[in-house]
Amino acid sequence: MERLIESIDSDTRMIVKDIIRIIKNGDEGSWELPSDISDVEYYPYDMTVFFDWNFNWKEGNQKYFVDGDYDDETESMQVVVFLNKDFYPELMYDLVADLNDIIAHEYEHHKQYLGLRPDSEVKTKGKQPKDYKYYLQSHEIPAVLQGFRRVMKLRKTGIESVIDGWLQRNISNQDMSEKDQKKLRSELIKQYELRYGKK
Fold first, then answer.
1. pLDDT surpassing 70 at residue 3
2. The domain containing residue 91 runs over which residues?
3. Residue 121: which residues within 8 A CB-CB, separation 6 or more?
C-alpha cells in the first residue's frame, strides 16, 4: 500500500508540474496531457489529463477557481483552472496546494477504478448524499485523504490546518452549515488518524 501512496505522490507532482509550467508560460486553452507537451502519451497507470484554463476570470474577490473530476468511462481526469490576473502571481501558493489536492484525489479514484484498492473503497452505484456525508463515503474518504496528504507534505503542516484551509477555500456556509463543517472536519481527522496515525 505504501508503494501505491508513493506512486500517487510522484504521479501527482508530475501532473502539477506540467500544469504549472503551462500556466507560467501563459498558454491558455485546452490541453490533453501529457501528449500535448511531450512524446509521452499517458501518465503512469494510463492516465490522461484534460486541462482547460484561462487568465481572464473575475468573480468578485476570488483569486481563482479550480476543479477536477475523474471519468471512469474514459479513464481520464479533467482539471479546470480560471485565474484572476489581478492576484497573479501571489495566488500560485494556494493554487499549487489545491492542484496537488485535486489531482491526488482524482488519481486515487482512478486507482480504485483499476482495482488497485480494496473492494470496500470502490464506488458503488446508487444515490450520492448531497450534504457533508458525501465526503464520508467509503470511496471518497481515501481520495480526500490522499489529497490532504499531498498538501501536508507540500506545506509541511498537520492535518488540522490542511482541512481548515480546504474548508475555507472550497466550502462556504451557503454550501454547508457551520455545524456540518465541524462534523466533517472531526470525522476526516478521525479517519486520517485511523489510517495514518496521529501526526
1. no
2. 2-196
3. 112, 138, 139, 141, 142
